Amino acid sequence: MSRLVMKFGGTSVADLERIRRVARLVNAEVQAGHQVAVVVSAMSGKTNELVAWTDGAGAAAPGLPSSDDEYDVVVASGEQVTAGLLAMTLRNMGVPARSWMGWQIPIIADDAHGRSRIDDIPPEKLGAAMDAGQVAVIAGFQGVTRDGRIATLGRGGSDTSAVAIAAALGAPCDIYTDVDGVYTTDPRIESKARRLARISYEEMLEMASLGAKVLQTRSVELAMAYKVPLRVLSSFVEPGEAPGQGTIVCDEEDIVEKRIVSGVAYSRDEAKISLFGLPDHPGVSSTIFGALADANVNVDMIVQSKARTADTANMEFTVGKRDAQRAVEIVRAAQPQIGFEDVQVNDDVAKVSVIGVGMRSHTGVAKSMFQALAEKGVNIQVISTSEIKISVLIDAAYTELAVRALHAAYGLDQL
Predict the structure, then answer these.
(1) What is the pLDDT of residues 128-184, one digit of tens each?
(2) Quick count: other Cβ atoms within 10 Å of Cβ 247?
(3) Which of 174, 284, 292, 370 could form a disulfide with 297 if both were Cys (CB 3.0 to 4.6 A apart)?
(4) Which helix (H) or strand (E) holds 276?
(5) How far apart (Å, rounded) are the C-alpha atoms in residues 292 and 245?
(6) Buried/exposed 131-170: b ≥16 CB within 10 Å, e otherwise
(7) DSSP code of residue 98
C-alpha cells in the first residue's frame, strides 16, 4: 500500500462540521488503499486567540529567562485540540485513527522557540502505526527540542510539518486549503485568474515569498530539497466531487509546456526606507546592512544612486512593515558612524512581481512589464530581478490596477 500525507489548514477545520468533511476526505483515501497521515492546523482564529493570551500574561521579570518556551506550550495547544477531534471523528466513522503530538513522533526541532526549524523526523514509530492500518492524525506546527521542550515552527508551520513528514515517510503530500489550487494571480483582484495545472517548485517558492498565501515558503523549500510531490487542493468539496482538481507542484522538467510568465504576485506588507546623502565610499553598505542583519531585520529590494552633492549617494531599500520603525531606529543609531544626511520611511507602497521559469530563455519580459505599467500611469519606484522573477515597488493605491494590467499583458487570462 502506498503512503500519503494530507494537510488541512485552519479554515478547513474551523468547526465540527468542517472536521467531519475532512474526515470524509481522509476516509476516501483510506478506502482507495492508501496508508494515510494527516497533519492539521489549529481551528481558524484559535492561534490568534492563544497568542493574545500570551501577550496578556506579559514578559518575564528582569533576571529571569524569556518565556518564549512557555509561549510555545500555549500556542501549540490549538493543533492538539484539532488532532484529537479529527481522530475522534474518524473513529466515529469506523476508521482506526490516533492523534500524534510533535513530541510523540518525534519531530525534533532546534530551540529557537517561536520560529524553530526541523532537524530530524525518525519515521519508525509513525510508519509502524500506518503499516498496522491506523490513520495518523498529527498536530502540525509543533516539534520538540532535544532537551524535551515543545517548540513551534512559526506562522504557516503546519505546511512545513506536513512536507517534512512526507519527506521522512517517502510519500507525496496533498495540501488542502480554502482554494482549489494555485492561480495565476489572486482571483479576488482579477476575476480572469486561471488555475494552474502544474507549477515548478522554483516558481511556487518565488510566488510564496512574494506574497501569494497558498503555501508557506519553508514548506516549498523543503519539498524542492527532498523532491516531495506536492498537490494543492480544496477541502470544501466532498470526496469524488471534483476529479482532476488542484495544482501539482513539481520539478521544472515535469512541465511539458513552459510558460514565459506563470503568475503575478503582490504584497502590501512593504515599507521603503530612503537614506539621503550617504558618503560614497566602501564599507558604508556593509555597516548599514550588517546592523540590520544583526537585528534580524530582513531586507529585500535595494537600489543606490549618485546624489547631486559630490562623493555622496542616495539609497533605498525595503523591509516588512512590522520591521520599518525598528529599521529606522537602527539606521539612525548608526548615523554618527556613517554620516548620512537624512532617513525617511514610506509604508504606503506595494510590491508587484511577475514570475516564470520561461524568463530564462525569453527576452522582452521586463519591457512588457514596464510598458504595461506605463500605459496605466503606474510609476515604478524600485526594481529587483532574479532569474525567474521581476519585482517592482509602486504606490499601494495602484496595486490592483497593476496586477490586472500585468495579468493581461502576459496573456494569463488565456491559459
Answers:
(1) 999 999 999 999 999 999 999 999 998 889 999 999 999 999 999 999 988 888 999
(2) 23
(3) 292
(4) strand 263-279
(5) 43
(6) eeebbbbbbbbbbbbeeebbbbbeebbbbbbbbbbbbbbe
(7) E
| Cell, residue 163 | 512536507
**Positions of the chain with pLDDT under 50:** none
Describe the chain by its helix, strand, coil percentages, rounded to 5: 40, 25, 35
Grid cell listed for 71: 509561549
Burial annotation 101-122 (CB, 10 A radius, 16+ → b, else e) = bbbebbbbbeeebbbbebeebe
Query: Quick one: DSSP state of residue 164?
Result: H
Question: pTM for this structure?
Answer: 0.84
Label residue 94 left, alpha or beta by phi (over 0 means left) and psi (-120 to 50 means alpha).
Answer: left
* Cα 219 → chain centroid: 7
CA atoms lying within 13 Å on the CB side of residue 363: 0
Q: C-alpha grid cell for residue 107?
A: 519531530
Sign of the dihedral through C-alpha 228, 234, 239, 242: negative
Asked if residues 415 and 184 have their Cβ atoms less than 8 Å apart, the reply is: yes
Instruction: Using DSSP, state whether 279 is helix, strand or coil.
Output: strand
Query: Under DSSP, is residue 18 helix (H, G, I), strand (E, B) or coil?
Result: helix
Q: CB-based burial of residue 286 (10 Å sphere; 0-12 exposed, 13-18 middle, 19+ buried)?
A: exposed
The answer to whether the beta carbons of residues 78 and 54 sit under 8 Å apart is no
Amino acid sitting at position 339: G
**Which residues does 237 contact at the CB level (< 8 Å), separation at least 6?**
180, 245
Amino acid at 117: R
